[in-house]
Amino acid sequence: MKNDPLIVERVYDVPAEKIWKALTDNNEIKKWYFQLKDFKPKTGFKFDFLGGPEEGPQFLHLCEITQIIDGKKLAYTWRYDGYPGNSEVSWELFEKADKTRVVITHTGLESLAENGKDFTKESFKGGWTYFLNDALKNYLES
């Protein structure tokens, strides 16, 4: 059971195209996600950013895009500078009528768990739930 992926999902009343832009256009990414120096939606592109709990330490995240299916799926490695472990995050979009279901799957979390309380599955679940239910939702509604 330990190696179960973390899966968080939500349905939005917007076309997939709008969500895809939010995930892959750095000008849009900055409005709701992390502040990236640069982002190009292509396999092998590397990006990094600082992030962490508001009142806690900030961690340098090191990511590399592993898969792009235009308009449907974005996956990238997710690891931390100076910490052991490597995981992968994928965002998948499923459009039906004028609604889009977004599914985030984060695998490999067990390889990060030994790094402390900010790296537990519950901590990641809280983070991804926030991004889907608050940050992305508010961005899409603005």
Any overview of this molecule?
A hairpin with a 7-residue loop joins strand 2 (46-51) and strand 3. The model has no long low-confidence stretch (mean pLDDT 95). This protein has helices at residues 16-24, 26-32, 121-141, and strands at residues 6-12, 46-51, 59-69, 73-80, 87-96, 99-107. The protein starts with 5 loop residues before the first strand and ends with a helix. It has a six-stranded antiparallel sheet, with helices on one face. Helix 1 packs across helix 2 (26-32). The chain contains three helices and six strands. It is 26% helix and 36% strand. The chain is an alpha+beta fold and 142 residues long.
Annotation keywords:
alpha+beta, 3 helices
Question: What is the strand and helix layout of this fold?
Answer:
Blueprint: E1 6-12, H1 16-24, H2 26-32, E2 46-51, E3 59-69, E4 73-80, E5 87-96, E6 99-107, H3 121-141
Antiparallel strand pairs: 1-6, 2-3, 3-4, 4-5, 5-6
Q: How many β strands by DSSP? A: 6
Main sheet attributes: strand count, strand direction, barrel closure: 6 strands, antiparallel
Structural class: alpha+beta
State the shape: globular
Instruction: State the order of secondary-structure elements, H for helix, E for strand.
Output: EHHEEEEEH
Radius of gyration: 15 Å
Q: Tally the helices: what do you get?
A: 3
Summarize the entry for a quick read.
With about 140 residues, the protein is an alpha+beta fold. Helix content is about 25%, strand content about 35%. The protein has helices at about 15-25, 25-30, 120-140, and strands at about 5-10, 45-50, 60-70, 75-80, 85-95, 100-105.
